[in-house]
Structures are given as C-alpha cells and as structure tokens.
Amino acid sequence: MNELRIDVDGDRTWFLPGETVTGRAVWRLEDDAESVDLRVFWYTSGKGTEDVAIIDSVHAEAAGTAGELGFSFPLPNGPYSFSGSLITLTWALEIVALPLGTTQRIDLIVAPTPVEIRLDSLGRPPFEEGAWTTVNFKPE
C-alpha cells in the first residue's frame, strides 16, 4: 500500500498572507518513484473558468520507495482563501509520486482570519427603486 503524507510544522492549516509554511513530506511506496514533487498552490472551483497557480515547489529526483523531503514555502500576500456562491479559491499543499501518479493533498487557509472569507457574508449593496440612471454621451 502506498503512503504519502504531508506534515506541516505545528499541524497548522491557517496562515497569514506573507507567512512561511514549513514541514516535511514523507513517502512509502510499493514501487520505485522516479521523482516526488511537493508544491504549494491555489486553485479555483465553481462556475466558470477554473484557475490554478503553483507558487513554489520542491523536487526529489530518484525518490525510490521511501524517503522524506523538507520544505519551506514563503506565501505571497494574496490572493486570500475565499468561498462564494459562484467561485471558491482554495490553497493547498500536494505531494505527487511520479510516474505512479499517487497524490496526497491538504487544504490550507491563507487569510487574515482563521476561516476563509465568505463572500456571501459581505452583504450586497442595497438596491433602491430609481437608483440606476442612464447617461447618454454625445461626441463633441
């Protein structure tokens, strides 16, 4: 049975923007892995276009059947983790053993508060009858 594990120092899952995520990735595999990659990234999900941005990664060549890899990933100042009715942005750490394709991922929160920002809790601007006006522009 293949085992991939990501151990974040302090067992943390919440990080302030600009903080550094540190820890180690451990693997025990039935077959040799040519390489093991660990990356920190964010991705969007929901309606519309889905995006992914890999922020940093570490690579272990000729990884074999067992090993560990330390990491220290400085996080950028944004984007923040958020969730809304149309789109969600999630931060994650992921370890991948290649070419086996075995993966393990843990989700993180990167925000000023220990919970993701809920867009639906921010409220909507009030709509008042007649609040919208039409402006006609005439070229001079």
- Can you tell me the number of structural domains? 1
Poorly predicted ranges (pLDDT <50, ≥5 residues)?
131-135
Distance between the termini: 75 Å
Shape: elongated
Helix content: under 10%
CATH structural fold name: Immunoglobulin-like
**Architecture, according to CATH?**
Sandwich
What's the helix count?
A: 0
> How many strands, what sense, and barrel or not for the largest sheet?
8 strands, mixed
Rg, rounded, reads 21 Å
What report would you give on this structure?
This protein is mostly beta strands. It has one domain: Immunoglobulin-like (Sandwich). Helix content is 0%, strand content 59%. It has no helices and eight strands. Strands 1, 2, 3, 4, 5, 6, 7 and 8 form an eight-stranded mixed beta sheet that branches. It is elongated, with a radius of gyration of 21 Å.
Short description:
The chain is built from no helices and eight strands.
SSE layout and pairing:
Blueprint: E1 3-8, E2 14-15, E3 20-46, E4 52-74, E5 82-83, E6 87-98, E7 102-110, E8 117-118
Parallel strand pairs: 2-7, 5-8
Antiparallel strand pairs: 1-3, 3-4, 3-6, 5-6, 6-7
Sum up the structure in keywords.
140 residues; mainly beta; elongated; eight-stranded mixed beta sheet; Immunoglobulin-like
